[in-house]
Amino acid sequence: MSVHILGGDQTDFAVNWHRVGLGFDALIRAVLDETLAAVRLDATAIEVIHVGNAFGQLFTGQGQLGGMPATIHPELWGIPAARHEAACASGSMAALAAMADLESGRYDCALVIGAELEKTVPGGQAAAYMGAAAWAGHETQDTDLVWPTQFAAIAAEYDRRYGLDAAHLRAISALNVANARSNPRAQTRNWSYTDASFTADDTANPPVAGVLRRQDCSQMTDGAAAVILVSDRFLQRHSTIRPDTTALISGWGHRTVGLSLDAKFRASAAEPYVFPHLRTAVLDALSRAGLADIRQLGGLEVHDCFSMSEYVAIDHLGLTAPGESWKAVESGDITRTGSLPINPGGGLIGIGHPVGATGVRMLLDAYQQVTGQAGDCQLPGVTRYGTVNIGGSTTTVASFIVESVAG
User: Which terminus of the chain, N or C, has less C-beta within 10 A?
Assistant: First the structure.
């Protein structure tokens, strides 16, 4: 049983919902209404709902977000729903659960929503809240900047094993911010930068942790994204749906390891890759899609919560040998006109990173690329597109392959 993406939408990630006095009900209503309009589907067609959200209780006091779609949309009253949490991979976990529902034959039409509100508290408190996705009470206990500290440690491990030039990290950030300029839903599309913003200038680009500086970090973001997933049976019953408006999820990979970053380093000490389970998840997705090489894709959305996480993704994808991600940065392979474009819409650094929404937003962008609906971010001739979404210090990793079914 195949799973297809019927369409979807996202909110404007530049909007601060808390500042205008709006909460999860308004956020989910907005993305749900936009998604149903985009796919020309009545809410009564939805048979199951999966919601990805990481930190709802901490930022807003609101849990039980599986019940929010029915709260704001009467047609969804009584529809089975669940909320999924896996830190930054929460949205991908919601998508995988929806796929399993469709593949099992239980349901034929699933709504997948990813949503997060992060602007309800000052930045320092927000960073501390997100530290809950590390091993609480066991690591990074001496700082509220848990994730900058963790990814700075990953940078240090890369430097120890292979060597690392932080200029390559800053180049990744600069590329993603530049790509976001043409994305009408990107958080940073209208932000101002100077020539020094992506340099080692301590004033224009202040140090945050280790080699990481301000522009190496994605920002606190409010937002939601949603997709409608359907089965073969659904498409057979709705024969008027044009194949060129749908996309096939042809491959997926999902791996989970322990919470501790140090334990991950120890486990991979004799391995060529720092995070072998991430490499395996990518290979699983390629294998399920019947592909032998990552370069059979036309582009990718990867998880750049920090520039270092994209640097990690590049070699674990197989775009370079382990530890040689810098080669893809220097060669221009990952630019929009390169051999394998990465984050043409701006990635997490450029588009924004509402944590629970990111995995779903990646699937949506993949769908839009292979159906020619990516607007000014569209890559030419793309028929296959991939995603790599990570949660925590790669504790949870997920990868999808999305393909065009037209012609």
Answer: C
In this structure, are residues 312 and 172 in contact, taking their beta carbons and an 8 Å threshold?
no
Cα(105)–Cα(28) distance, integer angstroms: 27
Give which of 221, 184, 186, 180 is closest to 357, Cα–Cα: 221
Measured CA distances, 147 to 141, 151, 233, 309, 331 (Å): 12, 6, 43, 11, 29
Question: Among residues 253, 314, 250, which one has the least CA distance to residue 283?
Answer: 253
Q: Hey, what amino acid is at 267?
A: A
Contact criterion met (CB below 8 Å) for 344 and 363: no
How far apart are the C-alpha atoms of 249 and 229, rounded to whole Å? 9
CA distance 61 to 74: 23
Q: How far apart are CA 386 and CA 12, in angstroms?
A: 23
pTM of the predicted protein model = 0.98
Query: How far is 47 from 106, CA to CA, in rounded Å?
Result: 9
Q: Residue 369 burial by CB count (10 A; 0-12/13-18/19+): exposed, middle or buried? A: buried
| pLDDT class of 407 with cuts at 50, 70, 90 | low
CA distance 343 to 175: 9
Under a CB-based contact definition with an 8 Å cutoff, are residues 180 and 343 in contact? no
For residue range 239-273, list pLDDT tens digits in order.
899 999 999 999 999 999 999 999 999 999 999 99
Quick count: other Cβ atoms within 10 Å of Cβ 347? Answer: 33
Give the integer Cα–Cα distance in Å for 253 and 317: 12
Contact predicate 186/351, CB 8 Å: yes
Residue 88, beta-bridge partner list: 86
